[in-house]
Design goal:
The protein is mostly beta strands and 990 residues long. It is built from ten helices and 54 strands.
């Protein structure tokens, strides 16, 4: 096509030369953001004279007048008119016309046109993914994908985000599945460089996820990294920023704490004014610590070779000393057309990671007495009551983790019979990490000391491979379009860990931090491993008739080593229908609604995320006994407390989704609305059973015993328009969710129908999972006031330990007796509504964008304030405590523990929030200015991240992610604070 257009252009050029003689000859190059554009039509305005650009985007045309105008046009790009004004060289850069480009969405084992898509899928492009200066690219999705809840969890440098899609499906691990360039990876994607990512697709409904079978129930996130396009080009991106604690906690000052202790024990501190007033947060947290990231890439494409090579560096100092994080990335994507029918390619990502592991000093800084000084008069660390001196803990901690990982995909594609493509690929994910932790001899106090130096060395290795073979068929016959794929996949995951500890090393020099340098007395060694295997067949067919009627059928059959032979295989089908109603002949013309699409889907996904040994009864070794004639020590083994269940089978999640997509006002307003209803049945759960010989009072055994339903709505609305030279837009996303346990342990002899969890670490558990409630609901007493006097105490149901000035707990069953049966549901950690909105405005090269995110309807248990293992500092809310009749009916009298710290809604706090996730001001330099410097594109920006957060939660962040097990809820036991960041960056393309 390009060659014929080029020849036609030469004919025009020849004719023009003969008609107009030797007029002005204009030369130039037409480019886009991706490089040179061949085949661009170049026409002289008001005439039939024209040409087309060649393979390198070059053109030449002769004019009879020096002041004529050239019109440049190309499918998928905005037409541009340029006055020549006597110039002999006119270079033009065309901008993409999004309204003309058919968006392609990546799905599992292929891609489809957005208009042909029958499932619920959201696609986020690269320009949105670089808006967050975090190590985890997933953070860039917060507030941008309807139905996706993303929580930072903590501000720990390099940490992985918590991601939940459309509620909580299972009582076990609810993490989504990540697929990077076809490679299914364990864990998150915080090993990737944002700059290397071309797009992220979030597969939300069962039809879109079914191709991933047993692993797709919790949602699938597909990451596609960049490939080369056009002429060779070099890109450089740099960002430098500084961070500080987003917000400090309101804790008692020294005088306030002393007065509180005096209320508990009168006369303890007679002269409060001479006591220290130490702000431990100011001492532990460092302000404006640097973080920086750099990426250099080379990319391009020829007729046969496509390549993308990049190197990246991310560094973050951390706001707590000794919590630094560094990551170096190397990315290589290539494909080579060996023959017209044969292509080979590879996608490789290599990572080196170095993490300094700070000791857990957030809670000690929270609990430390503010009336203790951090240092003695001689400069040594002072004794600090509560949980020790946090500064000493940092000083004497030496722990570092070094890790290496390579994720790759090597493939071959063979095209035959025109419409068939066979692809074979070998995917791998290999990594290892080593942690070395050394503690020297030191003394701060009797409770904070180390009498002998000690060393702990940990090694971990993970190896995963996937071998896949697929056959794809793509055919368009008139108004019929067929896209189908069938394949076979085999996978194996291996992991092994080895840990050793020694004490009394020969010295404390870092050169001696090896196990052989320590004493063999009290040495400890542990070693373990796990193996999983999965074998699968898969199939999907998409059919489109006349761009109006859409049909998708998907099937996958998985066999997993995590289950016994009698239930090893699971079948996961899905079906979806779509109707492009706006493509019908009867659809009315001339109305503001130009696009309308209806779709519906149903399917089944699975989940196998349980310990692979749960199918077996476990025998524990190391049970030694002395017996026999020589009274020698003999090794033994016995049942270790958890019987296996060979009848375990897959968790299955069946989901129905119905959605509508629309576009109005010439595409300025667009949106999608989905209703989903998802039931997860046969959930794998540990239930308490009566004990038997050697197993104690009770044992736990895993069963397929629970059912959970999630239902709600997703919606997204976007507006984009231009007024003159000003472009502007905004978008809104939202998701509602109702989570309910519909069954738990019924019909299993001896099994209970409640699961009590949410351990505070002091013997108290604060969550319950039972039928009719949401998973891991908070469970405890309801506080209805404070006892004001003896008459009220005598007339109100109470516990024996309660007295005047203590909480009044509600008699919820109304029987006049207060006991453990009066504990009830007091909150839920699952939000009712997750939302986000964004806005942008641009004028010429200057632009401003804002991204907001929020959630509402959920709570957090403030466990760090509820734990009283000793006399500890308090939040300043206790300054409003009861000190006599009528003084307070919400906060109890001063105490250092006891009845007022029972699990209750006093420690439940609202976790709703809305925050300004990012605000960015950028400027793209105009082409005439940068072309003189041989630069294709150049832009600079300043950005603020987490600058504003509105929440009633008193902790460092309401964005806690909880544990892998949903039954534990979300409990704040002290978390590394999140930070606010101010940064500036530069992007260049040569």
């Amino acid at each position: 096509m390009i060659k014929s257009k080029y020849l036609l252009g030469l004919v025009f050029y020849f004719i023009a030369g003969n008609i107009f003689g030797q007029g002005l000859i204009v030369n130039g190059t037409v480019t886009s953001n991706d490089g040179a554009l061949p085949g661009v039509n170049v026409v002289v305005e008001g005439t039939s004279l024209g040409t087309v650009t060649d393979i390198d985007g070059n053109y030449s045309i002769q004019l009879d007048k020096p002041n004529m105008t050239l019109i440049f046009s190309f499918i998928g790009y905005k037409t541009q008119s340029v006055a020549v004004n006597g110039r002999s060289e006119v270079n033009v850069r065309l901008e993409e016309d999004v309204s003309q480009l058919e968006e392609v969405v990546v799905i599992g084992y292929g891609s489809v046109r957005k208009s042909d898509l029958t499932g619920s899928v959201t696609s986020i492009k690269s320009e949105e993914l670089i808006k967050s200066p975090a190590a985890d690219p997933v953070q860039s999705l917060q507030g941008k994908v309807a139905g996706l809840q993303i929580l930072s969890g903590s501000g720990t440098p390099g940490s992985e985000s918590y991601v939940r899609l459309r509620g909580i499906n299972t009582l076990n691990d609810n993490r989504v599945l990540y697929v990077v360039d076809g490679v299914i990876v364990d864990g998150g994607i915080n090993f990737l460089n944002n700059q290397d990512i071309a797009s992220i697709e979030v597969l939300k409904d069962a039809s879109a996820k079914a191709i991933f079978g047993t692993r797709g129930a919790n949602g699938v996130i597909i990451v596609t990294t960049k490939k080369g396009t056009g002429d060779a080009k070099i890109s450089f991106a740099a960002e430098y920023g500084v961070e500080k604690v987003a917000n400090k906690l309101d804790l008692m000052s020294g005088p306030e704490f002393a007065r509180y202790i005096n209320d508990v024990t009168p006369g303890t501190y007679n002269n409060i004014s001479v006591l220290p007033d130490t702000d431990w947060q100011d001492l532990v947290f460092e302000d404006w610590q640097p973080m920086q990231t750099y990426t250099l890439s080379v990319s391009g494409a020829t007729e046969k070779l496509n390549y993308y090579l990049s190197g990246g560096l991310f560094q973050q100092e951390g706001i707590i000393p000794k919590s630094d994080f560094q990551r170096a990335n190397l990315k290589l994507n290539t494909s080579y057309k060996v023959r017209d029918y044969l292509k080979i390619g590879t996608s490789m990502t290599g990572i080196l990671r170095n993490t300094t592991n700070a000791p857990g000093v957030v809670s000690p800084a929270y609990w430390a007495w503010p009336i203790n000084a951090p240092f003695n008069a001689d400069g040594s660390f002072g004794e600090v009551q509560g949980s020790g001196n946090p500064l000493a803990a940092i000083e004497y901690s030496n722990s570092e983790t070094k890790a290496f990982r390579i994720v790759g995909n090597v493939y071959t594609e063979l095209t035959f019979l025109k419409d068939f493509t066979f692809k074979t690929s070998y995917q791998f994910d290999i990594g290892n990490d080593k942690t070395r932790s050394f503690t020297p001899v030191y003394y701060v106090s009797p409770t904070q000391q180390n009498e002998e130096n000690d060393l702990k060395v940990e090694f971990g290795e993970n190896r995963s491979w996937i071998f896949e073979n697929t056959l794809a068929y793509n055919k368009e016959i008139g108004v019929h379009r067929i896209d189908a794929v069938i394949g076979y996949s085999a996978q194996e995951n291996n992991s092994e860990d080895l840990t050793g500890t020694r004490e009394n090393l020969l010295g404390e020099s870092e050169d001696l931090w090896y196990l052989n340098a320590g004493s063999t007395v009290n040495q400890q060694n542990t070693n373990g491993s796990s193996v999983r295997a999965l074998s699968s067949i898969l199939f999907r067919a998409n059919y489109v008739y006349d761009d109006r009627y859409l049909f998708t059928a998907t099937f996958r059959r998985d066999g997993s080593s995590s289950f016994g032979a009698n239930n090893r295989y699971g079948n996961f089908p899905a079906f979806a229908l779509g109707w492009n109603l706006s493509n019908e002949a009867f659809f009315p013309a001339g109305i503001p609604l130009e696009k309308l699409k209806l779709r519906a889907s149903w399917g089944i996904n699975g989940n196998q995320n349980i310990p692979f040994l749960d199918q077996y009864s476990v025998i524990g070794a190391g049970i030694d006994a002395v017996f026999g004639q020589n009274e020698a020590i003999n090794s033994g083994a016995t049942f270790s407390g958890r019987p296996g269940n060979s009848d375990l089978k897959w968790e299955e999640t069946s989901e129905f989704d119905i959605g509508v997509e629309f576009g109005l006002l010439e595409g300025r307003l667009s949106g999608e609305i989905d209703y989903y209803n998802r039931l997860t049945s046969d959930i794998l759960v540990l239930l308490d059973l009566p004990g038997y010989a050697g197993a104690g009072a009770f044992v736990q055994k895993r069963f397929n015993a629970a059912d959970v339903r999630n239902s709600g709505f997703d919606f997204v609305l976007n507006w984009q328009d231009e007024v003159g030279q000003v472009s502007y837009g905004f978008g809104v996303t939202g998701n509602t969710v109702k989570n309910e346990v519909e069954g738990l342990g019924e019909g299993i002899p001896g099994a209970g129908t409640q699961i009590i969890s949410g351990d505070l670490g002091n013997g108290q558990r604060v969550t319950i999972t039972e039928k009719g409630q949401s998973i891991g609901s908070f469970y405890g007493y309801k506080v209805i006031g404070v006892f004001q006097d003896a008459d009220q105490l005598a007339s109100t149901p109470r516990l024996s330990q309660q007295g005047i000035g203590d909480f009044i707990y509600a008699d919820t069953d109304g029987n006049g007796v207060l006991n453990a049966d009066d504990r009830t549901i007091i909150g839920s950690w699952i939000p009712d509504f997750v939302y986000g909105f964004n806005a942008n405005v641009g004028f010429k090269g200057l632009s401003l964008s804002l991204d907001f995110a929020g959630q509402s309807g959920n709570q957090i248990y403030n466990g760090k304030q509820a734990i009283r293992f000793a006399t500890l500092n308090y939040e300043d809310r206790f300054n409003e405590r009861w000190t006599g009749p009528g003084t307070s009916n919400t906060d109890p009298k001063a105490s250092t523990g006891g009845i007022n710290y029972n699990p209750s809604d006093y420690f439940i706090e609202d976790a709703s929030f809305i925050k300004l996730r990012t605000v960015t001001i950028s400027y793209a330099f105009p082409n005439p200015l940068i072309e003189k410097l041989k630069i294709l594109t150049a832009s600079v920006y300043v950005r603020g991240t987490n600058l504003w957060n509105s929440t009633d939660y008193s902790g460092y962040t309401p964005e806690l992610g909880g544990s892998d097990s949903a039954i534990g809820g979300i409990i704040d036991l002290g978390v590394y604070p999140t930070t606010k960041v101010i940064s500036a960056g530069l992007n260049l393309t040569f």
